[in-house]
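In practice, a research group might receive sequence data for several interacting partners and want a quick structural hypothesis before committing to experiments. The following worked case mirrors that situation: the sequences arrive first, and a predicted assembly follows.
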Amino acid sequence: MPSTSLPASAVSLPLADWYRGAARDLPWRRPRFHEDFGAWGTLVSEFMLQQTPVNRVIPHLEAWLDRWPTPAAMAAASTSDVLQQWANLGYPRRALWLHRAAVEITERHGGVVPKDVDALLKLSGIGDYTARAVAVFAYGDRHPVVDTNTRRVMARAILGQAQPGPPSRRDLELMDSLLPADVAESAVFNAAAMELGATVCTARSPRCEICPLVGVCAWVAAGRPDTGDTRRRQATFEGSDRQARGAALRILRAAAPDAVLIDSVLAEWPDPLQRDRAIDSLIADGLAEADGEMLSLPR
DNA sequence: CATGCGTGGGC
DNA sequence: TGCCCAAGCAT
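A structural hypothesis for the assembly, expressed as tokens:
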């Protein structure tokens, strides 16, 4: 399946060497972080990192864990407080799911973040990436961790493609085939592949001059061809329902814990139908609550 | 399998 | 400026 005749170690060894010298000093990579927050800290960080850049996550993560240092502490919080604390991290449904996961961990796992991938996958808001990220980065187990960075690195270095295709189960199989047999080495490999994709093998301007894999990269060997791009493009944000939802929720966060008159929310929005649709969908999603003429974050 | 879902920074 | 992108998930 991999279009390479090189052994997997030809990729993993230089990557591990590079990572030891080049890894960024991020909060969740400091030993103290795990002493204080354990797997819960990892889980919270992974939720926040789902589609939100590292630099915007860091201050929010520290504030979050100061306020709710355990799953049980967060499980006891109100939805309103959770959504306010989530602030402007984006995709606020993640805050709802994280809250639900905290309740599930408290009720079903005695307040301890599960270590088993299948148990993690059953928690709200946790999918293939987050489940394995927690198992690997919090507990040190051996699993393929595949995110957008990893998929891009594999697409280029192994498959010789400029960009990865749509996410697929095959990504997990390919990453698994590259994983070192040693447990500790496999964890480093997962982290290093992500780090390389985030800082060197980037989507727009890959810095092949400094890449530790330049000697084995299938894409470089082929002359960095433009192999096409089948990635899904984001829908235009300007004028979208998402924009309206975001604007409405921003108003509710600012007013919380108070409610506001529904009629006052987005009263000047250019498209009244879209404005109504946004508010109705926020309520349906559990991100807002209507009480008579008033609208607020859910209690 | 395709789509909807926030927010802000970089080029 | 406008577009692209960012440690995905649920449906």
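Before designing any experiment, note the following. Residues 27-137 of chain A form a domain with the Endonuclease III; domain 1 fold (CATH 1.10.340.30). The longest helix of chain A spans residues 31-49.
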